[in-house]
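Recap quiz, item 2
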Amino acid sequence: MSKPVLSMRNICVDYVTDRGLVRAIDSVSLDVIEGEILGIAGESGSGKTTLAKALLRILPPPAVITGGEAYFEGRDLFSLSEPELRALRWKRISMVFQSAMNALNPVITVGEQIIDTLLAHDAGTPGAARTRARDLLEMVGIHGECIDAYTHQLSGGMRQRVGIALALALEPALVILDEPTTALDVIVEKEILEQIGDLQRRLGFAVLFITHDLARMLQFADRVAVFYAARLAEVAPAEELRRAPRHPYTQMLLSTVPSIRGGKDRQESIPGAPPSLLDPPAGCRFHPRCDRAIDLCRERTPELRELTPGHSAACHLAE
Amino acid sequence: MRYILRRLGFYLLAAWAALTLNFFLPRLMPGDPAAALFARFRGRLGPEAMQALRETFGLTEAPLISQYFTYLGHVLKGDFGISVAYFPSPVLEVIGTGLVWTIFLAGTAVIVSFTIGTLLGVVSAWWRRGLIDTWLPSTLVFIGAFPYFWLAMVVLYVLGFTLGWFPLGHAYGDDMTPGFSATFLADVVRHAVLPIATVVLVTLGGWLLSMRNTMIAVLGSDYVNLARAKGLSPWRVVMRYAARNALLPSVTGFGMALGFVLGGSLLTEIVFSYPGQGYLLVQAVRNQDYPLMQGIFLVITLAVLGANLLVDFVYLWLDPRTRGSA
Amino acid sequence: MKESTGAGATGIGLWWEAIRRDRKAAFGIVIVAAFVLVALIGPLFVGEPDDLVGMPLQPPSLKHWLGTTGQGQDVLAQLIAGTRVSLAIGFGVGIVVVMVGALVGVTAGYFGGRVDGLLSLLFNVFLVIPGLPLAIIIAAYLPTGPLTLGMVLVVTGWAWNARVLRAQTLAQRRRDFVAAAVVAGESSFRIVTREILPTMTSLLVAQVIGSTVYAIGAQVGLEFLGLGDVSAVTWGTNLYWAQNDAALLTGAWWTFAPTGICVAVVGFGLTMLNSGFDEITNPRLQLEHAWRAYLLKRGRLPERSTPVVVDHE
């Protein structure tokens, strides 16, 4: 296995509220290996997107990073200055936002939005940038003419492809995909995922793929990390996770996946609701929904333990 | 283009509403304003001229509906009747002498104020809780709370009367011959500085606050966040992404505030004896010159509607979504 | 089933929250209360405003704190008497304007369809027709007096409120509890008065405050033009007489300065009250506030990029 491109160590992120801090990411440690697709799965509100934006340091107020390190190409992202961050953003780490409709500027053309990114990082003359922008659009399967189109003139799938073209513009080492296909229908989703896979094999960037759809993730990713209530529940190679999930939460998630393709809300059939981060349960955060919980689970927080090489879970009962 | 056609239709409707209001107001009021009006002309107009005037206002014995169409017909031909205060000049001629000055004064003031106020709003929102954001909005809101004409009086008293830096009124000096000479234009500017400054001062706070508040909302949007993630310079993030979008609601507000600002500008004219519609309006009120009053109302309404149409064109240019084929 | 708001308070309660927690709102309420107090009991402490008490155009002195007018009346007595009338008309018109706006706006928003189309057209036309000239042509035909003035101010001022309240009603109309009431077969009147209007209480208060600012300003402007009852003592007529008596040319600043300052201060107080309320009811601003305080307490200035603050306890 080659070396990690990103090493997260005990990352904590809090939201400041009137009633004190709310921990949205709690001591997360995770590596992204060069050229791999790492999936991050979890229910909405479990902290996936927060983690992604924290890495780029673009989490808006009231978020504060309250601990940990994120080593990327030898530097800690959490100790970079504003100019250093600006130079690194997009050039080395880029991101596809959840909804391209909201993430693209509605009043300037998609071409301009790609070109200004290229120019901000000194990637050639305006003329060259325009040619490159066309190439990028064509690379993701959009006609080059669309360079002068506005967001509202494109279909949902095309917008998401523009977002992907934009993310690849500067050939970064790491691309974060934040649920890039949630707003799309199943067929377009499949096409786009295949395309991302293709591009990833060709260009060799690493992918941090965030989704609430664990089943889809298992087909697509090399490794998968499962989040539950701001913490990591389980990390394992995709194949192994599907075969032998160790955390009861992962097991429940997988058991609710129907064998035939179902709707996107199929995971909602786990009984109970995720805990409020304002007042998380003591011990293991999953214990109120876990049918195997013992007294220990209610008292002590389980640490993420490596059970077999490359497979870790945060459960007292896992062996 | 459908967007502009729809707006145009609306303005035509608004213009028609203003005309209709103008026609029915005197008829709805207690007493007989027509009799009062003609009493003021008695002895000054011959019976024939009197009859012509009656027809202009549709104040004949004919049924109301035919009176209404007679009135509309005259107005469409530009016949607004004869002024009492400026007898025997026709109303349209009286209004015509002052219209340019009013449009110049209000137009310049509103554009200057909107531009400066909007830029200050951007600055204020970007450096939240900075020095500018802490003091400027409140200060300008305070200044904006003064009546236009009162501020005009103070400005005139201090800068014109006491310090003598600026002329005390009128649009240009008595010794000037109007024309496109440099000295005349310089004189016009010198006379316009105080009235324009007054209107700008009163309205600045409103533009600042409206831009600041939309900016704050837009700065929290996904596309601004993505712009920052792209590593763009702060200047580009603020101007091309945040301000460019925050401008849209401000431009809509600009159109809606035009009529209001124009009202203030008219009051300011009065204090500076500026020869525009405001000054005429006072003369009309003092002399109970109803034809002139109604004429000014119509002309000003049409001017505001026209300005709104211009604003719509600007909006069309700023927001590609309104340019859609649908 | 109603959603709970963050602060736990609704309607009028939110206003108390604002006054307690926000400096601007507290400042505003103090100013407004002071003026109301002057309007209520001030006239007891000064003489008749119309009495001729001395030489015309005397500058401020111990005898006449704010000097005398061009007719020889006491400026302070006139100012205080004017406060009573102008505030009464201001608040009165403010309330009526919002009532008319609510009637039209809520009706349009609630019934939708053709009713909405017509009413929206009506208030949009009124919004685009310039208010001052319209006010003048209406006022010129009517006998002068507070009733005329009030009516004119209502006619030219209601449209904005109608527009805002229509939008708000449309939003409320889509909420579950309203839909439930419709399904339960409650009458429209009951749904509007029991379900929709109560959710808008705090907005209505904000609108009354905003409309009062408008009413005071517009009233002073119309009276300054001579469209009020010039024999009454109000802020606007005080300024009308100051202008008529050529206060400027004689340098008698005391005849117009105090009135203008009062108009501005009370307007500013009302506006601060409203903006303080906006501040505490805007969840984004509240969160940002807490965030900023958290950083400052740790000696850190707020930054553009997500700050990294590691507490070493």
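The first helix of chain A runs from residue 48 to 56.
Chain A touches chain C at residues 15-18, 21, 53-54, 57-67, 78-79, 82, 85 (CB under 8 Å).
End of item.
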